[in-house]
Structures are given as C-alpha cells and as structure tokens.
Amino acid sequence: MKMVQKKNTIDPITAQVIRGALENVAIEMGHKLARMSYSSIIRESEDFGCALVDANNQQLCESSHSTPLQSGPIPGYVRGIRKIMDERGDVFADGDVIMHNSAYHGASHGPDVGFCVPVFYQEELIGFSVTTAHHLDIGALTPGSCGIVDAVDAYAEGLQFKAIKVYDKGHRNEQVWHMMKDNIRASHMVVGDMEAQIAAAKIGAQRYLEIVEKYGLETVLAASDDLMSYSETMMRNAIEKLPDGIYAAEGFIDGYLDSPDAAKRNLKIAVTVTIAGSDITVDLTGTAPQVDDRPINMPLEGTVDCAIYLTLRSILLDSTIYGNIPQNSGLTRPVHIIAPKGTLCNPIYPAPTIARFCSGNIVADTLMKALSQVVPRQVSAGVGNLNVVAYSGLNGEDYWVYMDIMEGSYGGRAGKDGMDAVDTLYANTRNNPIEDIESHYPLRISRYELRDDGSGVGKWRGGLGSIREVEFLAPSSFSVEGEGHAHAPWGFNGGQEGLVGSLILNPDTDEAEALPSKIPNRRAKAGDTLRLTGPSGGGYGNPLERDVQLVLSDVLDEHISKETARDKYGVIITENNETDHEATKKARKQT
Predict the structure, then answer these.
(1) Closest to 554 (Cα-Cα) out of 536, 528, 531
(2) Average pLDDT rounded to a whole number, residues 59-66
(3) Residue 430 pLDDT greater than 90, yes or no
(4) Is 96:165 a contact under the CB 8 Å cutoff?
(5) Which pLDDT band, with edges at 50, 70 and 90, does 5 fall under?
(6) Strand 164-168 versus strand 171-172 pairing type
C-alpha cells in the first residue's frame, strides 16, 4: 500500500474551485446523514460531523452546519485508527469501513462513534471520508449515552470500538453487528443511525474520487496544500497583531456538588496563554487533577484541543470581518497546547470521560476570559453552560431513549447583548422542537420560556437562560449532565455576573426536591415533573451606560422588571411604560 505525499504549485483560481468542490462534498454528506438518520439528536439537533482527511491525517474540509465538537476531532479519529491498526499489523483496503470511538485514541467520547472509509485512487491511499455522530445508547451502565455521570472507569461507559472493521474489503462483518444489536438499548434506532453514517461516508469517498478523477491527483493535493497554507497564514497574521505576552485566567466547574469528597467539587480549570510572534501557546498547567472514578475528565485530543481551536478561530478570525476562511488543519498549526498528564484536561486511561461535554465548555470559556485581557472587544462575558438530559423507559420489552440538550446563553459583548437560550461555544447543536419530542416519547413539555430578570446586567446585558418543565406521562427514568449551578458566568469590564442554573424535581409541590447539576439514572413516576433552569450570561460594560431605550425595550419584552431597570440600570419607567428622562438622569448621577 502506497501513501501519497506529493506537493505541487497551483494557481489560486483553481485552488478556490477545488475548495468549493471539497466543501460541497462535506455539506452533501451532512445533509444526507441528517435525512437518513432515525434519532432526533442527529436528524433535528445535528449532533454529527462529516469531513474529508488526506493521507497525512490533515483535514481538508468539514460539514459547516454540524457541531464543531463532532467535525473538529475527525483528524484525531483517523490518527487513532491508524495507530491502533499499525500496532495490530493491520492495513487499510478498498471497501473497508472502520468503526471507532476510543476517547484515548482521538475520539471525543464514547457515544460519538466515527465511521471511516479509506479512499483509494489507482491503488494508492489518498485519504479518508469520515462521519461522526452522537448515539443515544452505547450499552453503558444505565440507559442513554449522556448522564452516565457515575461511571467509575472507561469500561462502565459502554462499548469500546477501537478501529473495528465493520466492512472488510467490502464484506459486512455480521458478527460485529449482531454484538451491537445485542448490547445496545434501542438498537433499531442506534444501528439505523450507524448505517446512515456509513452511507454518508461512502458518498463522501465517492465524491472525493470524482474530484480527483476530474482535476487529477496532483492538482487536488496542490490545491489542498495551498488552502491549508492560506488558512495557516490567516491565523498567524491574526496572532501576530496581538501584543506578545502572557495572559492567564481561572474557571471552575461544579463537579459533583452533592459529593462528600472535596476533590470532586468546584474543580479548577487554569489557562495561561503565551503569545510570541505568530505562535500562540495555551498552557493548562494548574488545572485540577483528574477524577479517577467520575467521567468529567476530558480527552486532550478530541475535546480539549477542539475547545481551544474553536475559541481561537472564532475570536481571532471572526467571519464577519475575515469572511469564510477554509476550515482545515492549517488553522491549528500556529497553536500549541500544553496539558500535564493526569489532570482533568489530559487524563490517564482508564479514567472515565463520557461526561466531558460541559467541562470542555468551561475550558473554552476560561480561554476566552484569558484572551479578554488582550482582545477585550472581541470576546463576550461569561457564558451560561448547558444541561444534557437522557430520558428513557420501557415500551413492553423495548427501550425508548431520548437525549435533550438544554440551551445555555452567551455573555454580552462589545456592541451587542448576549444571545438568549442557545447552545454555546463548541456545542452549536440545534434546539429539538417540542412537537417532535411529544410525538415520539411519553413526555410533555408543560413550560418552555426565557427566564424573567435572568441576565447579567451590563452596558450590553448577558443572554437569558431558558426554563423548561418536562412532565413524565409514563414510568420513566432520567439522568442529567449539567453545569453552572455553583459558579455564575463572569461579568466583564464593569458588567455583573450572570445567574446560575438549577434543577428541581416536582417544583411547586410538597414533594419539591432541589437536585445538583449532575444526576445519575433516577426513576420517575407518571405525573412527575422536572424543571430545568439554564444559566444566564454575564454582563459586559457598566450597566449605567446602557442605552435607555434598550432598557425600556427589555421592560416591555418582560425580560427585566421596572425595579431592575431602576436599581441596576438607573432607568425610571413610568406606569404608562415610558421613560422618565429627568428622573433617569438624576438616578444615574446618584448611583
């Protein structure tokens, strides 16, 4: 088997034409995967990724409408697969399809299963077409592939697929499929999603070959090299504009707030950013040690690196200023990551990692906090984190499983209020419609609204968290992987902190029970209600400088009360819902 490592020069117009062709391949893969999938987490929330990777493990393109936490790790999946196959003495062959989900070999975490199709041209391995997606069950300790917050090690998190050939030279390995169907709850849906991934990856491989056959292999490789060099240059130019120096920040994750062990609560994330010329180093030294028997540890490759790359890309190369820069491996070349082994950000196997989602968002948020010292107008204030809930139950002998991502919120930023009730930072999944939930599962959404008086005040206020109440219509169970119940999103430049979230079972009843942000599988009876309240983002800038009309608008929209307008913003609203300008001037002078 030969691997291609050729380079050639190319004119920029041809390079851009090939760029468009490659990007369209990834987009087509994504659209077809979403249309073929069974589960709402892929079909509606778009928690998947699609990408083409060259023979040197460099990402060429990705599906732009999917989540960064799925597309970003794909080169790591390929590196992990190749490492394992080399150790086994195995090789790629035309017609292979490799399944992979090892969090210690590039995968983001166990439920994000990747399917990799090697692409051959004239008997040469020229790259890989890869899809990843979150699956609703992976045969773990309890139903659902999120909320497994009490897993004691990697083995308790579910099935581990380490570079398994589900198709070998075009022949389907039926025994592997039988094993999955026998060990995965809701296997019809999960296996159906996996087959959709394979079909989408095969489409990507076919389209990549068509591009190579049309333009020639050397031309495509030259275009890819040119595009990666361009992306690298753009990132280096952006870094080089920053003053050299060292900038540090700390953030905290809840951990297990109900644990008697202090080593499992209020865990620190430390970030030190060093800028030197066109290189940037993100050092995570000082981060809390790994938690050996709880799954909030984060794989360095697949989660932590993606949180860092995405944050730097978003802040330093804002698409509204720089346009659509090619999303490929060139963007990561100027970025260097230091993460001591044995910490939350670089755990040692078999430390569990399945609940790494919310923790990784704190890495991104803390990196943004460090960067606020050098690019204050390009960051937001603190971000409200998310909750991921697994609902499940039995319908006769068959399981139903549903995963819901409860939105967070962004902090305010220079010139704009924070976005309300959205998935944040590297999550970027879509909201699942209530109609879809209620038509498929024995759940009723009895309340879904924005928080009242629920944002960090500032010249530009933080985004509002949301409130969702879910009623169980049949005996069921639920588990929660959440964050932001103990540590409020940070305010910036005179803005105030946001609000923490909460979780209450059977609110407004005699049975009301406040729950921590992480709940292992718990039974619920028909008629029980779970209220989830999402955190609200931090404020940016002095609230007394907020535009009076924006304060009035928030009052009219019932986002804030008249009392908050008066006490926090110094804006006096009359009974007729008009601004008393003289009283406001006086109040703001006195405050």
Answers:
(1) 536
(2) 89
(3) no
(4) yes
(5) very low
(6) antiparallel
Nearest in space to 77 (alpha carbons), one of 263, 302, 273, 358: 302
Three-class secondary structure assignment of 247-296: EEEEEEEEECCCCCCHHHEEEEEEEEEEEECCEEEEECCCCCECCCCCCC
Closest CA to 25 of 58, 55, 64: 64
DSSP 8-class letter at 303: I
What does each C-alpha distance from 229 to 58, 60, 78, 233, 329 come to in angstroms?
A: 12, 12, 21, 6, 9
Structure tokens at 554: 């928030």
For 163: left if phi > 0, alpha if psi spans -120 to 50, otherwise beta; the answer is left
How many C-alpha atoms does 185 have within 13 Å on its Cβ side?
23
Which token pair is 247? 């900038």
Q: How far is Cα 518 from Cα 516, in angstroms, rounded to an integer?
A: 6
* In the predicted structure, residue 591 carries a pLDDT above the cut 80: no
525 to each of 151, 393, 400, how far by Cα in Å? 24, 11, 16
pLDDT band at 429 (very low <50, low <70, confident <90, very high): confident
d(CA 520, CA 267): 19
> 204-248, pLDDT tens digit by residue?
999 999 999 999 999 999 999 999 999 999 999 999 999 999 999
pLDDT digits (tens, 9 = 90+) for 274-303: 999 999 999 999 999 999 999 999 999 999
Confidence of residue 146 (pLDDT cuts 50, 70, 90): confident
**How many CB atoms are located within 10 Å of the residue 252 CB?**
16
Which residues have C-beta within 8 Å of that of residue 321, sequence separation ≥ 6? none
What rounded mean pLDDT belongs to the chain?
A: 95
Residues 55 and 125: their CA atoms lie apart, in Å, by: 6
Place of tokens 């200023």: 321
3-state secondary structure of 338: strand
Residue 546, amino acid: R
Structure tokens at 579: 């601004």
Domain ranges of the chain: 2-231, 380-546, 547-591
Q: What is the pLDDT of residue 8?
A: 59
Determine if the peptide bond prior to 289 is cis (ω within 30°): no
d(CA 228, CA 231): 5
In the structure encoding, which two tokens stand for residue 185, read together? 């709850």
Cα–Cα nearest to 406, from 504, 483, 317: 483
* 175 pLDDT higher than 70: yes
What are the b/e assignments for 534-567, b being 16+ CB within 10 Å? bbbbbbbbebbebebeebbebbeeebbebebbbe
Task: Give the pLDDT score at 1.
Answer: 42
Both tokens of residue 468?
């969702």
